[in-house]
Amino acid sequence: MHASFGVFALLALTVSSNQPTAAPTATQVPAKKIPDEWTMTISVNAGGKECFFVSLVDEKFQGMAINYQVIDGGHLDVNFVLRSPTGHVVEEDQRSPSAEHKVLIDDRNHRGDYEFCFDNSFSFNSKKMLYFEVMLLDHEGSYSSMFERVLESEKVMTETMKNFDSITAKVKNNLNSIERDQAALRVLESRDRSQMENSFEKINTFGILISITIIVGSLGQVFLVRRLFNQ
């Protein structure tokens, strides 16, 4: 399930490198309204920074995974930093084109609002466009909705297979009907061809007889005329 950060209480903050601004406190939202997976495509201006907050206060979530990839702009690189609710740096990348990070709640990483930022302050004229995905993890360190997605996929696959079987049966019946029609047409064609060949043979035979009769009659007339003149 994908959703935008604005709907699910993730606070986006654009920070200029020339005018640093204090990050606002993330708004806490009831756990039932927090999605367990979402994606976003953003642009980070040259010399700018984009920061986001995600709340890990719900007991059913034991961590989160973040992966990102720069898809356009400059050398396809960006700085990344992930901070815990206490402010210490959990993960950090320098001029990286892509990366994936996983954070689990433990003695060092406590529950609260985590901040992650994409920093393009090292670039003077190249705006960066990047895609990132955030997934909340369950107590086993897996995507909490994976099982539901698998079940949903299986249901969709089952329905698809049922529809496919139904369509296949209809196609098979139609092909059988076409085959029967073609067989009947072949029988009719064979019968008509046989009749035409018989008629052709009869016409040829009759034509030959007529031709012989005409030739014999013509020769007889010539013979009679010559005999009359000879007498």
Major beta sheet, strand line-up? 1-3-8-5-6
The CATH class of the largest domain is identified as Mainly Beta
Task: State the end-to-end CA separation.
Answer: 121 Å
SS field, number of helical segments = 1
Q: What does the oligomeric state look like here?
A: single chain
Low-confidence sequence ranges: 1-33
What is the percentage of strand-forming residues?
A: 25-35%
Order of helices and strands: EEEEEEEEEH
Taken together, the total number of domains comes to 2
| CATH superfamily (homologous) name of the largest domain | GOLD domain
Q: Would you give the CATH topology of the largest domain?
A: Jelly Rolls
Verbal overview:
With 231 residues, the protein is of the alpha+beta class. The chain has two domains: 37-144, Jelly Rolls (Sandwich); 164-225. The chain is built from one helix and nine strands; from the N terminus they run βββββββββα. The chain has one helix at 146-230, and strands at 12-16, 37-44, 48-56, 63-72, 78-83, 89-96, 98-104, 112-119, 128-137. The strands form two sheets. It has a five-stranded antiparallel sheet with strand order 1-3-8-5-6, with no helix packed on it. Strands 2-9-4-7 form a four-stranded antiparallel sheet, with no helix packed on it. A hairpin with a 5-residue loop joins strand 5 and strand 6.
